[in-house]
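Support case: user asked for a sample of complex input and structure output to validate their parser. Sending the pair below.
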Amino acid sequence: MASRETIGPHPTRIEILKSAAAAFRRLGYHGATVEQIAAALHMKKGNLYYYFHNKEEILFACHQYSLERLMGLLHEVEQSGLAPDVKVRRLIVAGVHTILDELHGTALFLDLEALSPAHLKTIIAGRDQFDQGLRRLLEEGVKAGVFDRGDIKLRSFAMLGALNWIPRWYDPDGPATSQEIADRFADYLIAGLRVHEA
Amino acid sequence: MASRETIGPHPTRIEILKSAAAAFRRLGYHGATVEQIAAALHMKKGNLYYYFHNKEEILFACHQYSLERLMGLLHEVEQSGLAPDVKVRRLIVAGVHTILDELHGTALFLDLEALSPAHLKTIIAGRDQFDQGLRRLLEEGVKAGVFDRGDIKLRSFAMLGALNWIPRWYDPDGPATSQEIADRFADYLIAGLRVHEA
């Protein structure tokens, strides 16, 4: 979290995004103002406008940041040479950390409707690419005989839904750490993919 | 869907909710106006205000309607005397139909932030009751030796996330019917719960 202690007089772009994501989480996208985002960073509103022209640009940058992280994870995993189920596990675990620890669980989930049409198109295209990547991993697992045959598209939607919903219930003060959530989600979501005797 | 053909000059409350949910789906909650909701029902805006004082009340009524349906399903399933895995299957299948066919997939998902604090509290309390019910079914399955031991709370969140995310990707003109989605989701989400040899 971008705490007062760690943010200096000239916050980086990512510090701004983290602080904005925290404000969006707390107040909702529509509820949070640019003033509040700037104040949390001890910035003047005018200085924040040096980085972003308006609140929508900040939201877009949050989405882009999350997507870039997730796409980076996907490529790492795809090139890892690991077994398909281990690849999927890595992607789920790292995905949960990205969702929960990087931008306060908001960025993937926040009102897509608040984005401008051009930005929305970019984000949806990025998400589609991630979805495609997950499906490739599932297909790899089916071909390797590790995962059961089945509707890969619907399974990938179920997995992404489980992950994307986390910000709705996650309580940073709750009993489960992000690591525990990541591990238990991976256990459950992968168990449903495996080939089992009926 | 509340089509022009089926809605008479005096739409019922549920016809209004269905039409509003369709407008929210198409235009977003913030994008849809009461005028548009009324126009789709061939009503005057003033007549719509006879039923609901404002757009937020319509949104709240959509949430309440979905929750009541889901709670009704839960009680039916709980009293059915079926095996735990069959109960969970019924709940998932009926839940998908409620989400997709009843109110155009929007009601459970739409901006909760748009609700007034009192309405939000009511809806969150209702959701919590549903979550508790799902967890009771999962526990029943664990006790019966049908479901694997594991973190029931996190599993129930994963299941609800998969379901609640459906409106984000569902395409009424897409290849999968709501029945197929319901069946495949039940297959996958229950497979991950079962006791298996490793």
